[in-house]
Amino acid sequence: FSGEHFVDYLTSVSSFYDYSPRNIQLIQKQLPTATCVASFTEWNRRGYKVKRGSKGIKIICPVMKKSSDEEELVNFTFRCVFDISQVEKVRDVDGFDIGNKTPLDIEMAFESLMLDKENPATIVEQCDMPYSLGSYSPRLGSIKIRRSSTLMMFKTLLHEKRHAISIGSDYDRFDPNVAEVIAESSAYIACLKFGVTSSESFSYISKFCRDKSAEELDQYLTEIVLTSRKLIKWVNDVTSLEMFRKDLAL
User: Fold this and answer.
1) Cβ pair 45, 19 in contact under 8 A
2) Edge-to-edge strands, sheet with 121-124
3) Contact 82, 42 (CB under 8 A)
4) CA 19 vs CA 44, 60, 81, 207: distances in Å
5) How far is residue 108 from each of residues 12, 105, 157, 185, 205, measured CA to CA in Å?
6) What pTM does this model have?
7) How many CB atoms lie within 10 A of CB 92?
8) Closest CA to 29 of 45, 50, 12, 54
9) Residue 77, SS3?
């Protein structure tokens, strides 16, 4: 959780948030620049072939087996996947084209997210706490965002939405410092997924996690991945109509 290593991990999560934390670590360790992976067979099915000499990335995959009494068992084995940088297109496949996605209109997305009724959000000139960029009220279920640039307010909204999503969790109740680490990290991942970069430092994270055990730190990573997955789904669900309208306009 110190220095650039943690930020590099979060960047990998933004590309592989649907993967397990352990597999994200494996992918990052073997090919730090990876952004989109699939098996040899899957790339072929999508109209791509793996370049000669490419080295596969090993990840852990579940294998379902049945015992002698027909009970289903789950074993795990290593399988190889390949990154998009290791393949080349050989034919067109209907309904599939990597990299041809409509970019998210951040201003329109922010306006849509602010109107979401699940956790009503308002823009204020000053939050309750000095220098605070935003706040979440568990009692009211509402969010306040301090007026700033759209990009900063977008990031702050995701940070506070994480608190709303995870309200009542052990982290929020017993360790508010770690709750802030998870909220900031999850928001950072989701922002990267939608093309919003941030220059904020994560140096405070190592201070909050200094005396934690390896098992606890591993649990934090799991919570960060799961929460970022929820934030990304929330943004996609709320803004899908606006993205569709933008496609029509084009």
Assistant:
1) no
2) 121-124, 142-146, 134-137
3) no
4) 21, 10, 13, 28
5) 26, 5, 14, 23, 32
6) 0.83
7) 8
8) 12
9) strand
Cα–Cα nearest to 59, from 34, 85, 87: 34
CB atoms within 10 A of CB 51: 11
DSSP SS3 for 5:
helix
Q: How far, in Å, CA of 168 to CA of 178, rounded?
A: 14
Q: How far apart are CA 154 and CA 156, in angstroms?
A: 6
Q: Rounded to whole angstroms, how far apart are CA atoms 176 and 172?
A: 5
Q: How far is residue 17's CA from residue 13's CA, in Å, rounded to a whole number?
A: 5
Token code pair at residue 147: 């007026």
Distance of alpha carbon 242 from its chain centroid, rounded? 21
State whether residue 180 is helix, strand or coil.
Answer: helix
Q: What is the pLDDT along the chain (250 residues), one digit of tens a residue?
A: 766 778 888 889 999 999 999 999 999 999 999 999 999 999 999 999 999 999 999 999 988 888 777 788 888 999 999 999 999 998 888 767 676 566 778 898 999 999 988 899 999 998 878 778 899 988 888 999 999 999 999 999 999 999 898 866 666 666 778 888 888 899 999 999 888 876 565 666 767 777 778 888 888 889 999 999 999 999 999 887 544 444 333 3
Which 3 state secondary structure label does DSSP give 158? helix
CA angle 230, 235, 236 (to 5 degrees): 95
